[in-house]
Amino acid sequence: MVSSPHEAMHRIFQDHPDLFSRVSEVLGVDFPPPTSFTILPNDLTETSPVERRVDTLVRLETQDDEPLLLAVEAQGAKDPDKPASWAYYATHLLTKYRLQPMLLVVCQDRATAEWAARTVTFGPAKWPLITLRPMVAGPHNMPVITDPTEVRKDLALATLAAVTHAKSPDIGAILKAMTNVLRDTPADLANPIIEYVARGMGKHAAAEIWRKLVAVDLSFYKSYIFEEIRDEARAQRAAEDILDVLEVRGIDVPEAVRERITSCDDPEILRRWHRRAVIAPSAEQIFTDE
Question: What is the DSSP string of 134-185?
């Protein structure tokens, strides 16, 4: 299922590594634009049994001949253990690659973003050993882009901005501007963007807005999310048909049975239940042998 804002907040940097230069510009930090990039393995596990993985790791070559090692982390909530993990990532990456690391944390709510942006020190208060200072992109500093012209200027940045504003009251206008542009965008570029936004909306109310916009404005795209929307609609109609049969037959449908029917998304199971609903003496007995 397409339901992970975490994935959307960092994986877009794997498809668009140059996005960091525009994000840093939005955040008011001047980094030279990359001239090339390399996606690196995100596994930071050592020989010890503790597994550690940064979300996305990119090496960016720059015009200044000073490569940047960019770690991107998606953060959904405050986590008191994360600063220590981030400090570990930074020191491990420095040791492994001999390049100065950068950490970009992407958030969807202001409180988490402000928490992540704090400068954290490790070591005695009188003599800190390590200072952690992440860059943070979130709804407090990413642009609210509701003009299709602005979306068209930088589709990757507009996508990340939309994901960070998933809870914003302006999200309807933001997503509408996205579909206005995606309608005229080549499918090989548009389809991944459609799915990034879908993942980014997660279980927020904006997810339903996006699904409807995709179904109406972008119905000609045969993307993963479009197929998922179509399959879900079919499952919903099949579930309604089962409930209609039971209602016409005057059979009581307990809430637990109704919930099981409406939450099922397997077409074959729904067809089997529909056939049984025609003859079953009770609603529960449509589940016989399940």
Answer: -EEESTTTS-----HHHHHH-HHHHHHHHHHTTTSTTHHHHHHHHHHHHTTS
> 39 near 20, Cβ under 8 Å?
no
- Structure tokens given for 3: 């339901």
Count of residues making up the chain: 290
* Statement to judge: residues 99 and 170 lie in one domain: no
Is residue 190 predicted with pLDDT exceeding 50? Answer: yes
In a domain, 142, yes or no: no
pLDDT tens string 246-279: 988 899 998 888 888 888 888 888 889 998 988 8
| Structure token digits, residue 45 | 């596990």
Residue 41 in tokens: 């393995």
Q: What's the domain range around 211?
A: 148-221
pLDDT at 82: 93
- Is 38 domain-assigned? yes
Structure confidence at residue 2 (pLDDT): 41
**E strands present in 42-115:** 56-62, 68-75, 101-107
Q: Are residues 113 and 22 in the same domain?
A: yes
* Average pLDDT of every residue of the chain: 86
Residue 200: CB atoms within 10 Å: 29
| Same domain flag for 190 and 90 | no
Total domains, the chain = 3
For residue 32, which amino acid is it? P
